[in-house]
Amino acid sequence: MKYADKRDQRNIRKLTLVFSLIVLAVLVAVLALSSLAAFILVEMGAIASEDGITTSHIILFMAITSVVLGTIISIITSKMILSPLNMMTSKINSLANGNFGTRVDFDQIVSRVPSFLELSTVFNKLSEELQSTEMLRRDFINNFSHEFKTPIVSIAGFAKLLKKGNLTEEQKEQYLTAIEEESMRLSYMATNVLNLTKVENQSILTDVSKYNVSEQIRSCILLLEPKWAKKELDFQFELDEYTIDANEELLKQVWINLIDNAIKFSNDKGAITITASEKAELLSVSITNYGFEIPPQVMTKIFNKFYQGDVSHSTEGNGIGLSIVKKIVDLHKGKIIAESNNSAVTFTVTLPKKQA
């Protein structure tokens, strides 16, 4: 931060120096014109005495000429100085009005000034980030609408069938089970949105306690049993007993989201591997699923809010789970990395065993 402040101060000094040089050049030009005018005045005075032109006429003429030349020089100089600033004002207004495709491109002369070059770079980066966020927001609205609409339509359809009657007990049981599953799916999506809002508004880690994180991970696996049992997945553990100082409720969301993600992208009758290790004051937990790889272009975006690598909606999800995971890990002063190779995807969470 201090380095950035010093760099800004240097850029301000450079910009001030440029403006000072421009003002100095204007002063030199005015002095040169004044000297020229004085010389012409002397010469014209000698001629004027012969033609009947008085000195006052010459002085008036020179005064008018000086005003005109000074005005022209001032206009040109002010345009040179203010043109980049006026363009920046126009671009900022355009960006504020929602035109996130706005970019700044100074001419070659202005772009040579370090301050203007840095200003254009920062502005363009800001515009790109806003444009990317806006695209993600629109995609999220479309995806979320799709994900939300599907279970609602299913619930409404099965409820109508139940209302008509004349169903066997087996059909009733089947429809009620479908309604229950779709209701839980809606509840899960709503909970994820609320959790994201909660952790985004949280800047300080609270409710820290010491507990057995290995036991917590095993409990999360049991909670998700209906999902992995349906796909006949096998869990492979390398998980000793580890304790950690953390917010137990928040970390529970981390394991549930990561394990649910691993289940979702595993092949039927596949395996999920969960390993843990400690080093010094750090604890690392890795969750690996097999069957799919994450393309490099997707890997850089998977922790972005609202991002979904699968735009075909062939898998459930709304692009929120991994954003929640990243935010919670950051709150714990930890880090999370994702790796994908040989048809395997591994998420590794590293956390400090003790919180300051």
Descriptive overview:
There is one protein chain. The chain has 356 residues and is of the alpha+beta class. It has 10 helices and 7 strands. The protein has helices at residues 2-51, 55-96, 108-111, 114-164, 169-200, 213-223, 225-230, 248-264, 296-299, 321-331, and strands spanning 208-212, 234-238, 243-247, 271-279, 282-290, 335-341, 344-352. The strands form 2 sheets. The chain has a 5-stranded mixed beta sheet with strand order 2-4-5-7-6, with helices on one face. Helix 1 (2-51) packs antiparallel against helix 2, helix 4 (114-164) packs antiparallel against helix 5 and helix 8 (248-264) runs antiparallel to helix 10. The protein starts with a helix and ends with a strand.
Spatial order of the strands forming the largest sheet: 2-4-5-7-6
User: How many helices in DSSP terms?
Assistant: 10
- Low-confidence residue ranges: 1-5, 311-315
Q: What share of the residues does DSSP label as strand, in percent?
A: 5-15%
Strand runs, count: 7
The Cα radius of gyration reads 35 Å
* Biggest beta-sheet profile: 5 strands, mixed
Q: How helical, in percent, are the residues?
A: 55-70%
Overall mean confidence score, pLDDT = 77
Structural class assignment: alpha+beta
